[in-house]
Amino acid sequence: MTGTLLHLRARRVPLALAAALGGAAVVWTLWLAFAEERDATPMVVVMTVLLMVVVLAPTLAGPDESLDRTASRRWPWWRAAHLLAGLLVVLLALAATWHTGARFGPAALVVRDAAGLLGLTALCATVLGAARSWFLPLGWTTVAALYPQAGTGGATATWQGQPPESGAAALTAAALTLGGLVAYSIAGPARRGPAEVFEA
Length: 200
What we know:
Elements: H1 2-10, H2 13-34, H3 42-56, H4 65-68, H5 75-95, H6 107-128, H7 135-146, H8 151-157, H9 167-187, H10 194-199
Helix pairs in contact: 2-3, 2-5, 3-6, 3-7, 5-6, 5-9, 6-9, 8-9
């Protein structure tokens, strides 16, 4: 248990967790207070998922790169568990709203976008590093949620904003989820440059 706690503290998970849950709580409160309908719009749901994923993104790397790659710990399993725990946090937080006056769903939309966005963030962390891993998910999802496109190609390009029954969007999210999980678990976050290490 001590090793797990040290891992969470080193990656600033308690702070990120508080920020993610706090952000979701703010959106839920605003919807409850000002919206006339109980069910949040798909765009609000997608952007809430995005908010939580972006806040959790920096936890994908620790402050000590050499420690993150030491052979004394089975890092692929730890990294996979870290990603899955992040997914569980997002899913449980939004599932908790389903029996309240402001409901964030449907479940298929939440699961698809949470898994796909975490996979995309993990892929970006592998290539760009955890500090920049949220850039692409934020930009891509904002455009996709605001301007979803029709057709198979459009649904693939704007999968985040598609209805939950879209097969193309589900396949795209599944590919990103699997690719991000495998790449991040095996390779870990990209190494930071000298300037980034100095700033950290």
